[in-house]
Amino acid sequence: MIDRQTAPYGALVLRVSLGVMFLAHSLYLKLVVFTLPGTVKFFESVGLPALATHLTIVVEAAGGLMLVAGFRTRYAAIALLPVLLGATWVHWRNGWLFTNAGGGWEYPLFLAAATVAQALIGDGAHAAGARVAGTEVARWQVATRS
Asked: Would you put residue 46 in left (φ > 0), alpha (ψ -120 to 50) or beta?
């Protein structure tokens, strides 16, 4: 049974933590740690075009911001899913554990599952999207909206 008092806050925690992770992964890891040229080189080394690097960074950063803000959460989560499935594919040959050399597929697959859960759950509490659209609902309705 879903607790209607706390479920919106569970969705909020999931939404914000996923959003922060995507922002850190796109802006810090890919642009600062690995640098854009280094990230392009990696993408090309696994057979992806350089353009895929730029698209991935934009989708991760924009999707991360949308998740943190709670703006069109379901759309953001769905847009981020191909990025995570691609990351799972890239890391598949390295084995399950993400601590393996080159990183395994456990972490990207878990994030894909969490992103699907977010898409199914929706905005949760304190979402900007509900305020912008003028459809903000009572706290107990957020978890049960269809």
From this structure: alpha
Task: Specify the 3-state DSSP secondary structure of 136.
Answer: coil
Which structural domain, as residue segments, surrounds residue 73? 7-138
**Between 60 and 140, the higher pLDDT residue:** 60
pLDDT digit string, tens, across residues 53-89: 999 999 999 999 999 999 999 999 999 999 999 999 9
- The two tokens of residue 84 are 């995570």
First CA to last CA distance, the chain? 16
Task: Evaluate whether residue 87 is within a structural domain.
Answer: yes
Residue at 146 is within a domain: no
Helix crossing, 7-23 with 106-121: angle to 10°? Answer: 130
Mean pLDDT of 2-29: 95
Query: Does residue 112 belong to any structural domain of this protein?
Result: yes
Q: Which residues contact 88 (CB under 8 A, 6 or more apart)?
A: 105, 108, 109, 112
Q: How confident is the model at residue 144 (pLDDT cuts 50, 70, 90)?
A: very low
Cα-flanking dihedrals φ and ψ of residue 120, to 5°? Answer: -75, -35
Count of structural domains, the chain: 1
Query: How far does CA 90 lie from the centroid of its chain?
Result: 17
